[in-house]
Design goal:
This protein is mostly helical. 83% of the residues lie in helices and 0% in strands.
Length: 185
């Protein structure tokens, strides 16, 4: 497995984090650099950590988590997406938040979007690749795409607040359903 394949894997693994970052950007009221960095750091870190963990844990760990990892992602994304949908119907005007990305919310989203990277890490062990180069590429790609996603979401969120929040919540729920359906089919 060469550099082009690792880059393609990195982009593929980053797509869930990118989609969630767009949704997070919908809740950003202002454009401050920290609001782009936080999702990038969380998602980039977990997309780096999970393949490394999978690589070292090997197939034993994958066999145990593979039977229910789709349920974990489905439940986490469903809860967060459902709350966003519920909040989109709220008539109360929210006060702007400087940091709408709470620790617990970001942690759950980062775990939910990076579980599939565990299995990728296991496959890396079979290909005799430099795991540290691979995880750095994956982490940097996810970090960059997540920051871009927040900006994209912010641009659309300013114009279409409640519709965007509803759509964002629906995207998270659909993403969770997609993960669940892919497992069964």
């Amino acid at each position: 497995m060469g550099f082009p394949e690792i880059v393609l894997i990195a982009v593929g693994l980053s797509m869930d984090a990118f989609a969630v970052s767009i949704v997070l950007g919908l809740s950003v009221k202002t454009s401050k650099p920290i609001q782009y960095l936080i999702p990038g750091l969380y998602f980039g870190f977990f997309q780096t950590l999970m393949p490394l963990t999978g690589y070292f844990a090997g197939t034993l760990f994958t066999e145990k988590i593979q039977s229910f990892e789709h349920w974990i992602a489905f439940i986490l994304l469903g809860i967060i997406g459902g709350k966003m949908i519920k909040d989109s119907f709220s008539k109360e005007e929210e006060k702007p938040k400087d940091h709408p990305f709470t620790f617990v919310k970001m942690l759950l989203l980062a775990i939910a979007t990076s579980i599939d990277a565990l299995a990728v890490g296991v496959t890396f062990a079979f290909f005799r690749i430099n795991i540290f180069t691979a995880i750095l590429i994956i982490g940097f790609t996810t970090f960059s795409l997540s920051m871009a996603g927040v900006k994209i979401g912010n641009v659309f969120g300013i114009k279409y607040k409640s519709k965007a929040e509803f759509s964002g919540g629906a995207v998270l729920v659909i993403l969770g359903l997609k993960i669940l359906i892919e497992h069964f089919f």
